[in-house]
Amino acid sequence: MVSRRLGSGIRWSIRTASLAEMLPREGYLCGERFTVADVLAGYSLRLARRCELVDADAIEPYFGRLVARDAARESRVFASA
């Protein structure tokens, strides 16, 4: 049971690290348009940060753009990110 959890956590952290490396330096996942892909990625990155599966500094430029959006601030979903 422990090895399964550990194995699952390792796979998740590797995938999350790969995602962090592929995040755009400017704009969003689909260019300048904010899409549902950004919503999904943002929530996944939020969880990964909270579980310490990804380096917060590695995702900050992209994640910062997401949480700075008016809708994100109003929703307060990222208030504890």
How are the secondary structure elements laid out?
Layout: H1 2-22, H2 36-50, H3 56-67, H4 70-75
Could you explain the architecture of this structure?
By secondary structure, this protein is mainly α. It has one domain (2-75). The protein has 4 helices and no strands. The chain has helices at residues 2-22, 36-50, 56-67, 70-75. It is globular. Residues 1-5 have low confidence and may be disordered.
Task: Write a compact overview of the structure shown.
The protein is an all-alpha fold.
The major sheet is characterized as: none
The 3D shape can be described as globular
How many beta-strand runs? 0
**Count, helices:** 4
> Overall mean pLDDT score?
80
Low-confidence parts lasting 5 or more residues at pLDDT below 50?
Answer: 1-5
Structural class from helices and strands? Answer: mainly alpha
What is the number of domains? 1
Radius of gyration: 13 Å
Q: What is the end-to-end distance? A: 29 Å
Helix fraction, binned, reads 55-70%
- H and E string: HHHH
Strand content: under 5%
